[in-house]
Amino acid sequence: AISGQSNQEASTPAWVMRAATSRFGSFDLDVCALPSNAKAPRLVGPPSMYAVERGLGGLVAVDGLVSYWHAALAWCNPPYSDIAPWVRKARTEVNAGRCGRVVMLLPAKPGEGWFQREVWGSAAEIVFLSGRIRFDGYGHAAPGPSFGSCFVVVAPRPVWAPSFARMDLGPWRPKRGRKAQPDMFAAAVPA
To answer: Is the pLDDT of residue 53 over 50?
Structure first.
């Protein structure tokens, strides 16, 4: 999720997913995942990485930017080096009626051009998150990002402006010195 060559496979921490599930409901498709970090029972992935989708014919390589997102509620934590195509794809899938809603975990950077061009025109809701998220996949010594995050909800909506909210992640954040709970989707997705 975080930008940078070695950071593209960083995944959403389980506690952030619990917060997202608490607010939005259970996700049935992760549209930008690897089998090792999927946050929903079904997945498709980024074009530059191998990803699979479980189907009748077994495991098939699937590009999340090209395939259809058939889901009631999809999760997307895109590579932060190229966010705009994922926001456009979410809008396309929702407008086509193939996906009911897409919840995206994005950098909270409303002053950036990609945010102004893509998010403001696509979001039904923007939820700014308290604090900063340290993504999984770095080991213990890795620094967290230098920016905040937000949930951006792409859903069918009237043409007026999106709604805004703030969510305190404190109740879901692991306490210092306490081991984080395991990812609840780890057993649902084959390795």
So the answer is: no
